[in-house]
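Interim report, section 4.2 (structural modelling).
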Amino acid sequence: MSNGEQNYNQDDRLEEALALLAAGAPVVDILAEAGSDRSWLEPLLKMAVEAGDLRQSIPIPPPQASLERLLAHGAQLATAAAPAPWYSGLWNLWRGNRRFALSGSLVMFLLSLGLVLTFLAGGLLGGGIVLAAEASLPGQPLYQVKQLGEAIRLAWAADPMERAYLVEHFNEQRRQEIERLLARGDRVEVQFTGRLEAIEAGALLIDDLAVQLDPQTELSGQLQAGAQVRIAAITQPPDKLLAVSVTILEPGPPEPTSTLTPTATPTAPTVTPVRGSTSDTIQLPPTPTPTATPTVVEPTATAIPTPTPEPVIVPSTATASPTEAVVGPPPTGVPDDAENETENEHEAENENENENENENEDHSGSGSSGSDDRNDNRDDNSGSGGSDDDE
Amino acid sequence: MRNFLALIPTINPIMTMNDDELFNRAKQLEPAALRALHQRFYEPVARYIRFKVADGQTVEDLSGEVFVRVLEGLRRGQAWRDSPQGWVMGIARHVVTDHYRRRERAVEVKLSDELVANGVASPPQQAWLNERKRRLVQAIEQLTEEQREVILMRFIEGINIEGVAKALNKTPGAVKGLQYRALQALAELMQDLPMDHLLGVEES
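Predicted structure of the assembly:
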C-alpha cells in the first residue's frame, strides 16, 4: 500500500469523523470507535473543534452599511430593469444622461420612423389635396389650390405649343365646372376666357356656352365676333349664366376685304395704328373690370376706322370715369401664340409687323412676361450647365 | 387588543425559506428577500473577510461589495444551486483577492491581537483561553493560502466539503486532502500549547 493510498484513506476517514462531529457526536465517542486511527485522528478532531470555537471570538462590524448598500443596489437594478416609459429616452436625452440615452436607441429609431411616416403622410396628404382640388368647383375652398396648380403648370410650360394646349385645356375645365355648377344648382361667380362666336339679343355665345347679358353687365371694349374675351359671370341654375363683366382680350378678325389685299392699296398705309392712340379711340368707353386681370387692348393694325358690320353693344350703365380706363399698355398679357396668330393674319402689313416684332424684342428685354421668364430660366440653366462644365 | 397583538412575534416566512427559494426571490429584487439573504450570509462573509483584512471599516466595505456581486451574479444567472453558501464564500474570496491586488497589502492589524474570548471561564482560565485563541489565529495565518481557506470555510463557518470545493474551485477530494493537511499543520503548530495544559494550570 503506497503513501498516496494511505493519505487518501486518512482523508476519507477524517471526513467521516468530521461528519459525525458536525452531526453532534462527542469527540470522545468518535475517538472510542476510531480504533487504530485514534492516534492520528484525535489531534485533528480537537483542532477542528477549537477552530470552530473561534467563530464566536472574531469581531465583525455591524451589518447596516452592507445591508443598505445591497438594498440600494437592488433598487437601482429594479429601476433599470423596469420597462422604460416611452418618453424616457427623450427625457434622458434632455437631461444629458448619456448612459441611458444611448440605451434609448429604440426611441431614436421610433423618432426616425415617425419622421419617415410624417413625410409619407405629408406626401399622401399633399397628393390627396391636389387630387381633391382637381375636382373642386369655384366657390369651394380647394379651388384656389386648383388655380394655383394651373398657374404653376402654365409658368413651367416652356413650349408655346404646350402652353397653348394648357390654356385650352384649362378653358375646357372652366366650361365643365360651369356645367357642374349649374347641374348642382349653385350660384357662384365664375371666370373664363373664350372666343366670342356670336352676339345675340341679350346674350353672348362663347365657345358654345351662352352667357346672358343684362343692364348690369360691365363691358370693356367693343364686342365683335371672333374676339377673345374674358367673362366673369354668375351661374343661374338651372341652365343660365349671367355675365357680370365682359372684357375684350383680343378683338375679332378684320373685314375680309381689307385683309385679302396683298397688293396694298394706297389707303392701307394711312392706317397708323400707333400704340395707345388710334386703337384706343375706337374702343367703347372703357369700364373697370371687377377682375384682377389686367385688361389688355391689343393695338394691332387690324383696326379699321370704318364701322364694322357687327352689332355693337354700348353699355348704358358704364359709370366709371375715363381715368380708370386701361389705356393701351404694352400687350404683355397677350399670349405668344395669340400674337403670332395676329401676325400671320396680317402678313401684308409690313410696318405693323415690324412694329410687333420690335415690341416682342422689347418684351424679351423687359423680362415681364411669362415667355421672358422662360428665357431667363433657360439662360440660368445654361449658365449653371456651363459652370458645371467648368467644374 | 391592538397592543396585545403587537406583542405577538411575527414570523417572516422569507427568513425560513431554503437557499434556493431565497436566491430566486432575491434575483427578482424583492427587498425582503435581499434583507433575508443579507441576514443569512452576512456573518460568514464578514468573518471570513475579517480574518484576512485589517480594519473593521474595510471589512464593512468589502462585505457590502460581496453582496453587491452576489446580487449581480444572481441576476446574471450564475451557477449557485449546488452550494449557495460555497458560491457566496467564493465571491467573498474574490473580493478579498481583488482588495489586496489594489492595496498591495497595506498595514494590517493582526486578528490575533483583537480576539476576545467568550464564555464564563474564570479570569485565569479566560486569560489562557484568550492566549490559546490568539495562538490558534497565528497558526492559521501561518498556513498556506489554500489550507487557510479550508480552515476558515470548513471549520469556522461549517461549510460542507462540496461548498468549500465550489468556493475554492476544487474537487471535493482535493478539499479533503487540504483539510487533512491543514488540521495536521495546525496540530503541529499548537502542540506546544496543548489544551490539556489548561486543565493542568487550572488544577495547579
